[in-house]
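fyi for ur records
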Amino acid sequence: MNTVTRATPASRVAMIIAVLALIVLAAAPWWAGRADLRLLGEIFLYLSLACLWNLMAGYAGLVSVGQQAFVGFGGYMLFALAIFGGLHPIVAILLAGVLAGLISVPIAALIFRLKGAYFAIGTWVVAEVFRLTFAQISALGGGSGSSLPVDIVRSLADSRSGREALSYWLALGAAVTVITCVYLFLRSRRGLALTAIRDSEVAASGLGIDIWRTKLEVYVVTSAFTAVIGGLLFLQKLRISPDAAFSVNDWTAFVIFIVVIGGIGTLEGPIIGTILFFLLRETLADFGTIYLMVLGVVAIVVMLKAPKGVWGLVRDRYDLELFPLSYRVNTKPKGD
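which gave:
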């Protein structure tokens, strides 16, 4: 008798470990130091950005080098809505995500006319337009940027430790939300359509899948989530400037590195890549430019020796899947 299932023993064990790890991480404000909390929060936010970029590039084929546009947009909207709109920072961040989703629609209508490398360059041009535009807004500090007022910061919590704990929990919640939403989306019918588009756009079109609309939905959703992550990043920093908000190095190059070395087109890849990236960063950060050179060497070696990334190499060798997305046929003897 044959049965079709998605879950595997490995995925069940991974789920149990993930729940236990989440419980431990949620309690981090009571056992971790201040520096550790900030580092963990940064790890969670980078993981979120990596998962979102992986959804676009690894599944929808939208290789963007301009996602810093929405990181910076989310950060600036936090400051603008909190300072001039009088909104609570958390509400401002959520509204920033909605606004980013809305503004991404006309942007998509424009850059979706471009293909391949031209699309990637187009996304970078959009990010530069965003940077130059916000640099001209004197109310937000112009080119030098501005800091979040003290009264807005204190609205988060009365004590510094309370604010740091809240910021940490928001980052952890964002990572869990992004991973869960991406996972559920890929398990849905739309996710199946997206996977078909990734494998072959011609075949997907022949099956009646609306390729343009599916890619638009992915672009809008990832843009909205990216803006929320951007707001959380600059809520941690409490200061923003055009160069920091729209840094292609910080918010796109490092994210692409994470996804590439971890394994593009997999849910496990960004998690593995984020861990490896921060291990390298914390180990080599004191060596200055050598740190960046090592990252480049690692990326080249991985692309040559394991084009599918570290997780792709592990998956192919051991047939592992921690996030059960694929269907599997279990064959049992008739007598059982």
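The beta strands are 2-5, 146-147, 239-240, 328-331. thats all i got for now
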